[in-house]
Write a structure and sequence with these properties.
Aldehyde Dehydrogenase, Chain A, domain 1, Aldehyde Dehydrogenase, Chain A, domain 2, 2 domains, seven-stranded mixed sheet, 16 helices, globular, binds nicotinamide-adenine-dinucleotide
């Protein structure tokens, strides 16, 4: 019974709220105004290891609007000091943060595997992405370029500079528990904003580690505030807080819509990174073994729980049988287990809700007329799997583009192989979903590669590589139901976290009227 109860703690719809912490489990606090504090209610929720639900990692504050208010007040008090700190000085502190992350990379990766489940080499990559983001973006502290331009009138100077947006609310998902918070936090800080960040309820520890590193780096009290808790209360309180000028959200398209509507009501800036249904196109001239490697990594890395996961494989009929046979063979050989074990290829999925949703989609796939469950499809519940959320990597073949498993984001270790007869048809299938995050093509024909590159309406595109593997110095984001026009990472992220101010300096000593006065001698 105790086991079943703890398992529920990973189930968002049924938070495990504890008023009195048991002594053996560590308690973690919110970080508000430079102090580590409990939630005002004193309530906590448990962070559970998805590979072993008896392993309680810690208890975190179950924050409410009162805690969010306190965090926003702290961010407000720190704002003028931080925005008036020269950007190169802000950046120096961020470089120190980068060093702290490097020193702690292994520990942070181990913590992340324990709370999130993905294998150690992937959590190492997640922390590395935070390090890369920190170094790259801190470099912007000495750039943050604006521009000058000629003015219409004589003796008048025109320029454009970036100014911080103000107080920012950052809401993040559980699948990249340090990388995604860093993508928001670091550019927000370099631009001079102060923040309140709320990590996903399944993975608060990785953001806690990041924020603790910010404190160690010497970021002033109130500049970064951490509030843990559930989306419906702490998340909603952030979204609706009138003093938060910008909400930067990454998560599902459904939640993103709620966040966007709330922001629209109060005229807040809102940047959204949401779901995906990504695709690899495999042409008849492709290096099939390379394409298989890409498909396996894209579909089953992070147990398929990536916004860029390769959940559709559109394969040319001429190589379809060969590709499907090899893919199934290799999928069956993947080792499922605890991500902390170096032999593991595929870790658990995040929580009980995820198991339910993924198993439901597998059932839908089995019922869809024509689709074949080629391998996997079962939840593993015995032996080493008994206390975790393990699902076999699953391949459906003979999938039609309009089937639900080919249209909807499953967010688990499930991929759909769809036959195609031509590049044109493949591109039409590939574009034929509501999302537009990432797409890839495997081909040796440069003309086909460029054709697909031109015709795919996605934010990211790969040639002879999988749908995952973004680098921090290129913009990241998607079209259609994946995003709302913004891009994170690269220098483009600065356009989220700063606003342009156009400045005119008239040194003529007289009134000059733009669009009205004529310039002497020109007419
Ligand atoms: P989610 O939408 O359930 O939760 C995301 C965050 O929003 C969490 O912190 C949650 O607590 C919070 N939240 C939930 N309800 C809220 C509400 N009413 N108001 C304010 N905040 C609320 O998503 P998830 O399950 O954590 O993450 C998986 C989803 O994220 C997938 O759809 C995936 O594709 C997407 N994702 C997208 C990207 C991207 O860059 N496009 C990256 C990673 C994940």
């Amino acid at each position: 019974m105790a086991q079943a109860k703890k398992a529920l703690a990973k189930n968002r719809s049924k938070p495990q709220v504890q008023r009195h912490a048991r002594a053996s489990v560590k308690n973690f606090n919110n970080y508000i105004g430079g102090k580590w504090v409990q939630s005002e209610s004193g309530e906590v929720f448990e962070n559970i290891n998805p590979a072993d639900t008896q392993d309680v990692i810690g208890r975190f504050p179950l924050s409410t609007a009162a805690d969010v208010n306190a965090a926003v007040n702290a961010a407000q008090q720190a704002y003028d000091g931080w925005r008036n700190t020269p950007a190169p000085r802000r950046a120096e502190i961020l470089f120190r943060l980068g060093e702290i992350l490097i020193r702690n990379k292994d520990r942070f990766a181990a913590d992340m595997t324990r709370e999130m489940g993905k294998v150690l080499k992937e959590t190492g990559g997640d922390v590395q992405e935070a390090i890369d983001c920190t170094y790259y973006t801190a470099g912007e502290g000495r750039r943050l370029h604006g521009f000058t331009t000629p003015a219409e009138m004589p003796d008048k100077f025109a320029m454009c500079v970036r100014q911080p947006v103000g107080l920012c609310g950052l809401i993040t998902p559980w699948n990249f528990p340090m990388a995604i918070p860093s993508w928001k936090l670091i550019p927000a800080l370099v631009c001079g904003n102060t923040v309140v960040i709320k990590p996903a309820e399944d993975t608060p520890l990785s953001t806690y580690n990041l924020v603790q590193a910010c404190e160690e780096a010497g970021i002033a009290p109130g500049v970064v505030n951490l509030v843990t808790g559930y989306g419906e209360n702490a998340g909603a309180a952030i979204t609706n807080h009138p003093a938060l000028r910008l909400i930067s959200f990454t998560g599902s398209t459904e939640t993103g819509r709620i966040v966007a509507s709330a922001c629209a009501e109060r005229n807040a800036i809102c940047s959204l990174e949401m779901g995906g249904k990504n695709v690899i196109i495999v042409m008849d001239d492709a290096d099939i073994d390379l394409a298989i490697e890409g498909a396996l990594w894209g579909a089953f890395g992070t147990s398929g729980q990536r916004c860029t996961a390769s959940s559709r494989l559109v394969v040319h009929k001429k190589v379809y049988k060969q590709f499907s046979r090899k893919l199934v063979e290799r999928t069956k050989a993947l080792r499922i287990g605890n991500g902390a074990d170096p032999k593991t290829d595929v870790g658990p999925v995040i929580n009980a809700d995820a198991v339910k949703k993924i198993m439901k989609y597998i059932e839908i796939g089995e019922q869809e007329d024509g689709a074949t469950l080629a391998c996997g499809g079962k939840r593993l519940t015995r032996g080493e799997y008994a206390r975790g959320y393990f699902i076999e990597p699953t391949v459906f073949t003979d999938v039609a583009p309009d089937m639900r498993i080919a249209q909807e984001e499953i967010f688990g270790p499930v991929t759909a192989v769809i036959p195609t007869k031509s590049l044109d048809e493949a591109v039409e299938i590939a574009n034929g979903v509501r999302y537009g995050l990432s797409a890839a093509i495997y081909t040796r024909d440069v003309n086909r590669a460029f054709r697909a590159m031109n015709d795919m309406y996605t934010g990211i595109f790969y040639v002879n590589a999988s749908t995952i593997g973004a680098e921090v110095h290129l913009p990241f984001g998607g079209t259609k139901a994946t995003g709302n026009g913004h891009r994170e990472a690269g220098t483009q992220v600065l356009d989220i976290f700063s606003e342009w101010k156009s400045i005119y300096v008239d040194y003529s000593g007289k009134l000059q009227r733009a669009q009205i006065d004529t310039v002497e001698g020109i007419g």
